């Protein structure tokens, strides 16, 4: 296969050889005529799905089709946060499964993904929020997930520079998940791509799916910009564009595509040692290992495929930042960008079969897809291989909207821009 | 992106609230559960021209129908929802 095992020994050997022996991390595969499983979308979820199909379920005649290049979509556009601090029964086991996979990921795929369990701290600013976080923390602990309630003095010891005595939104404490943190997002894509490739998966870049071939109600392959490819099963993992691809199979989804912006400042000396979220506005921030402050807030709130947003949300995000930690006003913004979110109607994802035989759907990740990458891949691989939902993803059904079994973590109702 | 309100002129986005696809039609009260589920949850979500409702809450408080391209954010037209809208026409047909 295309690359050998990374280790301290290989690093030393290459250091002595002037780094002339490193090989590409994955092959530039060309499409074959047929596969057992074709995965549409070479983002984090598609690559993770391919890896777990090969590694855990022994299915290696797999192709991942990516219209651009690996790492170009949301896997390279997020704010790198991982956590499993969910409340609802449908979500909690799934995100904890993901958290556990993150904890073992680097050994599993032999790739340094810079998994950093620096903690995720959700601040609260009044009694009602405190009660809500106590409830959430208790729900987590009942699922054997770590959660710790910090009072204001404990938060102050950790992050002394926050705006504790704001007249409207004083910081009263926070819910801390110490096992949460950040993961280097590009490395997740590259690591899964390399590991899947090593197991024989074809990763085919610059290959856009232009049609889904259906014969007698059953999927038999896809049309692509590089020719037709036959497949026994097709899995869609193209969040952001799920509606467009599903429409090729005649499906309408409970999804709107929205834009979410993110921001990073110039590199600064380390001063924020955990992911911190503001409870009185939508603002979350962490500091990358390179020193940049990485932060974001709400989606813009209107349908968009443009991968860029507008100024009102930029203003809203930096207002939140200034309210929480006034010192970031001194930092200079280095970059700002947008990604496409599959905003589902209840704010939760879909990992399920579709009404078309042998066509499977992994979609609706809203703005929370990155943390879910490993579990999404594992559960989608399980569904594709066994034709039944993985035990931690049984709630993510496509028909849950019609059954009234929505998973509305924020209790907002069927309007995507409120989630 | 700015919206040219027919009553107030061109205004910034902060003044508006978005309410999604304006081409959806409310089913009759006794329509099947499936058509209600489709109406509440399913969307075409097109990449390209999209007719959508915006509410000018910090201006004239009128509901507007905006024809906008979701791939470029270019606004093709803004008109007042209401008298000329499909809803009203359909309601007359049902009446």
Q: Could you walk me through the main structural features you see in this protein, from its secondary elements to its overall organization?
A:
The complex is a heterodimer of chains A (419) and B (95). Chain A is an alpha/beta fold. In chain A, 29% of the residues lie in helices and 26% in strands. In chain A, the strands form three sheets. In chain A, strands 1, 2, 8, 9, 10, 11, 17 and 18 form an eight-stranded mixed sheet that branches. In chain A, strands 5-6-4-13-14-15-12-16 form an eight-stranded mixed sheet. In chain A, strands 3-7 form a two-stranded antiparallel ribbon. In chain A, helix 2 (44-57) packs parallel to helix 6 and helix 2 (44-57) packs across helix 9. Chain B is of the alpha+beta class and 95 residues long. Chain B is 19% helix and 35% strand. The radius of gyration of chain B is 15 Å and the shape is globular. The chains are: A alpha/beta (419), B alpha+beta (95). At the A-B interface, helix 7, strand 12, strand 15 and helix 8 of A face strand 3 and helix 1 of B.
Topology readout:
The complex is a heterodimer of chains A (about 425) and B (about 100).
Chain A lengths: L7 H9 L17 E7 L3 H14 L4 E4 L15 E2 L9 H18 L10 E5 L2 H16 L5 E4 H7 L14 E5 L3 E2 L2 H14 L3 E3 L4 E7 L2 E7 L4 E8 L5 H6 L7 E13 L7 E4 L4 E5 L4 E12 L7 H14 L8 E12 L5 E4 L5 E5 L5 H18 L13 H4 L16
Parallel strand pairs in A: 1-2, 1-11, 2-8, 4-13, 11-18
Antiparallel strand pairs in A: 3-7, 4-6, 5-6, 9-10, 10-11, 12-15, 12-16, 13-14, 14-15, 17-18
Chain B lengths: L1 E4 L3 E4 L4 E5 L11 H9 L7 E7 L7 E7 L5 E6 L5 H9 L1
Antiparallel strand pairs in B: 1-2, 3-4, 4-5, 5-6
Q: Summed up, what is this model?
A:
The complex is a heterodimer of chains A (419) and B (95). With 419 residues, chain A is of the alpha/beta class.
